[in-house]
Amino acid sequence: MRRPLPKWIDIGVMPIINIFAAFVVAGIIIALIGENPITALSVMVKGAFVYKGALGYTLFYATNFIFTGLAVAVAFHATLFNIGGEGQAMIGGLGIGIVALSLDPLLPPLLVILLAIPMAAVFGAIWGMIPGWLQAKRGSHIVITTIMFNFIASSIMVWLLAGMLMAPGQMSPETRHFAEGVGLLQIHQIANAIGIPMARSPLNLSFLVALAALVGVWVLIWRTRLGYIIRATGHSEKAVIYAGHDPAKIIMITMAISGGLAGLMALNEILGVQERVILNFTSGYGFTGIAVALMGRNHPFGILLASLLFGALYQGGAEIDFEFQTITREMVLMIQGLIILFSGALALMFHPLMERLYGMIAGPDSITSPPKTKRAEHG
Amino acid sequence: MADIWLQFLLTIDATLRVSTPLILCAMAGIFSERSGIIDISLEGKMLLSAFAAASVAALSGSPWLGLGAAILVSMIFSLLHGFACITHRGNQVISGLAINILASGLTVTLGIALFAQGGQTPYLSSAQRFSAIPLPFADTMRQVPIIGTIYAEIISGHNLLVWLALLSVFVTSIVLYRTRFGLRLRATGEKPEAVDTAGISVTRIRYQAVLIAGLLCGIAGAYLSIAHGAGFVREMTAGKGYIALAAMIFGHWRPVPALMACLMFGFLEALAARLQGVDILFLGPIPTDLILVLPYVLTVVLLAGFIGRATPPKAIGQPYVKER
Q: Average pLDDT, stretch A198-223?
């Protein structure tokens, strides 16, 4: 007997089943390679939480994923698929670089930082808004445009970092270091200063910005007029026009917010750790944001949990490199692909089974057929 | 003068070599997308098949087995894409993206497990690869001005898969526009209800389409690792799948215009490689990065309708739900 799933199963149980499926497949691959998947998992868990400073690293990676995950989620609420987080983050980093490199000889460090932070968001927002404009006004598909914009951003970075922004007397494509003090404080420095012992890790103040962004997005999407219109645009453009709004404008605003959030990722990597602009500092985190948003069901709380999971995976993956000969951190990329597959593209695969199971446990329902319209949705 | 002519010929020759995987992938994309299934996993399938080809060729010593393995692996992932998008009506972009990320992780993980060379496969000898086929009289023809040099430099000396890529354009055109299957496939991408009403299974047509796409991507991957290159290197596709996607859009989802777009994008890449480090008078080195980005910029401009307009198949990206 089938029975439509209650909300708590849909939100609470289904993601766990999907992640579990991804881990099972990954485990099978590891076993085929000839390593013990359980040992690998325990090494990862230790590497992510137990060892000294491990938790700091996990939260450091999670910070990246909160930003890029939120970026994807905000766009999703307007049914826009922003694959361009990677490029938007790169350009966000460029924004920080331009402000820091041009102003650090002139202004005190604190002022430079305060000017650089919004620039990350502004640059990312512009890089997100152009595809939004192209979709809204010129009808080009946002998926294709954002893919192209990732490559364009990457080329711009190579061109600038190996050209006019390259540090003098340097061979690798990167800028000079920012002036002393132009960077975000690391959490362990703060903790040690006030007398709490804490192991070294790159976790920095961006983490707090990320938490603020989580709350901010929640307020925006569910507690403001704009958020309501964004969600309405996702459901029915006609209704939005009828209500007197311009969907084109909403699409552009949504993409700007989305791009801005992705741009903020650069805070963590550039201002938090590198204190200079380097090539490929985004390392695919923009794409991980898609997995995070899918798993977190586009809700800030879900995104927080998914970011922690991926933070742990990335940090645990680094530990795998030390402990094993035959498996490396690329395994994490594989798991990530599987998670996107199971909780994104195959999100509905386990639904009929769960509906049957639930029907067996909970007994027959008065409404026997599951709502068909719900099932056609993705995500 | 003769030197410039030779340089030009060599650039055109390189264009053909660089364009080959683009052409194969663009044709793959055309089959998939004309049936209504978005395929951004061209990149991932090409990477997976490049790895499969190099691994099998290295282990067995036969390029033909390598090619077979490449095609098989690529088709398996096409089936996965179809399973997610056609059977389970999943989001086609997400499925494609998942395959691309999975491919990045899987190739390196398996590569290290198999060969312990940091994700690469061993260097392949010429017997394990598809080598260049010199056409008859190429050397004697070289003496003949213009026509002879064109024959010797551009037409002669390509490996089998280059010819296969060019053939694939011809075959794609015929299949798409001159066969019953092609008509049905195009109809499925435009108006699946009509196909369904005619008593033809939309599901079946779409599965056939993605499988053909898998076959072509497989050849493209094999070309990269066991014909053009001599082994697999991690991330060796380096965005070629996306450039092929761009070329397909540039060619309005039609085989011959897509071929032209592939050749144009290939020419830009070949040109950039040749101009690396060359100075223009008074302007300093040519910014080759900016030449390489042109395919992406041009695609954005085209999609925005500033130079013509690219209209995708009508039913693209929408899972087909049979009405009851």
A: 94
A285 to chain B: which residues are within 8 Å by CB?
Answer: none
pLDDT digits (tens, 9 = 90+) for B126-162: 888 888 888 877 777 777 777 777 887 778 888 899 9
**Could A33 and B113 be called an inter-chain contact, meaning their C-beta atoms sit closer than 8 Å?**
yes
Q: Which residues of A touch B313 (CB under 8 A)?
A: none
> In this structure, are A144 and A20 located in the same domain?
no
The residues pairing with B117 across neighbouring beta strands, listed in sequence order, are: none
pTM of this prediction exceeds 0.80: yes
First to last CA, chain B: 71
pLDDT digits (tens, 9 = 90+) for A309-332: 999 999 998 888 888 878 888 888
| In a shared domain, residues A16 and A140 | no
**Which member of A147, A349, A378 has the closest CB to residue B91?**
A378
- Please check whether residues A152 and A191 belong to one and the same domain: yes
pLDDT digits (tens, 9 = 90+) for A246-299: 999 999 999 999 999 999 999 999 999 999 999 999 989 999 999 999 889 899
Tell me, what CATH number does B66's domain have? 1.10.3470
Q: How many domains does chain A have?
A: 2
Q: Which of B108, B231, B233, B115 is nearest to A334 (CA)?
A: B108
Q: What's residue A1's pLDDT?
A: 59
Domain span at residue A230 reads 56-323
Task: Tell me whether residue A377 is in a domain.
Answer: no
Chosen for mutation from B99, B101, B248 (greatest number of chain A CBs closer than 10 Å) is: B101
| Domain count for chain B | 1
Which of B98, B100, B312 minimises the CB distance to A344? B98
**Cβ distance of B292 and A152 shorter than 8 Å:** no
Question: Domain range spanning residue B211?
Answer: 2-303
CATH of the domain at A112: 1.10.3470
Say if B32 falls within a structural domain: yes
Residue B132: burial class (beta carbons within 10 Å; 0-12, 13-18, 19+) = middle
| Strand-pair partners of B284 | B280
Give Cα separations from B254 to A88, A167, A302, B169, B251 (angstroms). 32, 46, 43, 10, 6
| Same structural domain, A235 and A114 | yes
Residue type, A262: A
> B303–A141: do the CB atoms touch at under 8 Å?
yes
